[in-house]
Amino acid sequence: MRETRPRRSALVPSPRKGDGVMAFFIGACLLFALTTLAGAQAPAPTPTPGQGQEMVLKITKEAGRKLPLAIPPLSAPGVAAMQSKVVEPFTATLRSDLEYTGLFVIADPAHYPTGSRDPSTTEVADRWRGTGAEILVDTRADVSGDRVAVEARIWDLKAHQLILGRRYSGGVSYVERIAHTLANDLVKEITGKNGLFLSQILFVSDRDGAKDIYAMDFDGRNVHRLTSHHSLAMNPDGRGGKVVFTSYVSRFPQIWMMNADGGGAREIKTGLELNASPALSPDGTQIAFAGSAKGNPDIYVISTAGSNLRRLTTTHALEASPDWSPTGRQILYTSDQSGTPQIWVMDAEGTGARRVTYAGNWNDEGAWSPDGSKIAFACRNEGDFNICVMDFAGGNTVQLTSEGANGHPGWSPNGEKIVYQSRRGGSTQVYTMDADGQNKRLLTEGGNNMQPIWLQ
Amino acid sequence: MRNRTGTTVLAFLLAAACGLAAACKPKPPKTTAETKSVTTETKGAETAVKPPSTAPPGEVGTEPLSGDVAAINRAGYLKDAFFEYDKSDLRDDARGALSADAEWLKRYRSVQFLIEGHCDERGTSEYNLSLGDRRANAAKEYLVSLGVDASRVKTVSYGKERPFCTQSTEDCWQQNRRAHFLVTAK
Fold first, then answer.
1. CB < 8 Å to A385, chain B
2. Is the ipTM of this complex over 0.90?
3. Chain CA centroid to CA A209, Å
4. Which has fewest Cβ within 10 Å: A180, A265, B44, B127?
């Protein structure tokens, strides 16, 4: 019955201290509504989002070419003291986020012109185009006490047109979150897809001894601990601000549920043994898990209120590792009923079970992509496990890793990235890669870090 | 007197276990002290041992067990059952160990115990939790079939989370594929 006490990072909004960021969120939401409805927000020429968006989309679709951006430092007139607290973290975060997408290349800041950043005239636009950039990301800050307001104007340098004008405000200490939010808005405007820059990854770490649940930003920054069970807490899954996991804190493995910030933790009693790999349904009301009665592990479902326990599989074989389809109508799971562990699918009532994977002698830990078209899983034929992705509709499996022993894949909310664990040189760490296996990045260090899941 | 009985029982268990085919193949990773005490008592086992099953069950069942729970666990009276890779069915050596465990448990009927299911590092963490559950329960079911009261035993799966050794060798993997016994009350 231990209540977990989270150690908040400075950037995670807290109900008590986060009035700054809340205001900033509200501000951003209001402004979004305004720009959408009225088409204008910043004191600048009226943007025509449809027009700008269409043209830029055409640019980015050209043969996978990266769109060159000029991102001059945040302009903060008259507040030189704010350089290290506002200007540098904001500019670095914005540049790093946009490079992370793989869609953009940032023109060399050494070649940026001084003077005007208003490219509505051909003369100024040409000066900026001289850097190689096609888009100018102009940001200006107004710092007042411990609050900062950032005005962003995104210009198409060829058409001399404003693509996006938006204003954000919040506490000075949240300046990186403002940069992340702008990066999300910019990516959404240009690609039509949601950015990941405010997303969180949960994982299990033994860095402090016993395995507990931790959280970090999408890029591995701001690691903070969510549970302090000092026992064995593992296999987190989360969406909609709720997280479920398995904990041995009461000696036997039980399902626990908590808020995404680690607060409000409670045990969900199932009356079964095992209680492993809990997965939250898309609507957040049900938990699928591997439960066992008398040594027969099956897939079960129980409501998050701890009622209405149902057994979905009835084989004498071993079942494990359930995951919901994005619609909540089907459940992916592992079964060894064919003689080797393979991925199966059934509908959420437990009927219509069929085998999904056939290649290799061990396929496990299946994870459905957010659009439901693909599954990622740990795959093995001989040797070490790798990460594979297959089209759910049938066939076409691609192996995305070849180094180390890999496992536990999870999709980013926009379906563009996969987070996974890889054991190399004696320790297991969390990595991310593009959904096609490109751009592999190490996110963690210190102890073993594993079982990652991108918070949906 | 009590000590001698304990020694005799232990010696018998060892003799019985080693007498069965391949019973001593896996070497459980116990402390050096335990390994020593086991080897010194082996000689006596070969000479004069009466199987406890010939004694009236009612009498031996009430026999007190010396030492506290921690000491009993250190003594390692209950032998672990070992498994094949990705399997939870009982090998001959596992049945041998469990038969001896059943005899001991019938002798000390107040003993409550836990069976932990463990797996080697190969395979995924989530699958191994299910596999460990099957192993612990396979051991439990066999003990129950031999007359041990099911209410005395609880099971827990640790999958590959609590390995007995951490090398990536078959020898080590074998040590980690087991149903491990822990006395929880005497």
1. 124
2. no
3. 26
4. B44
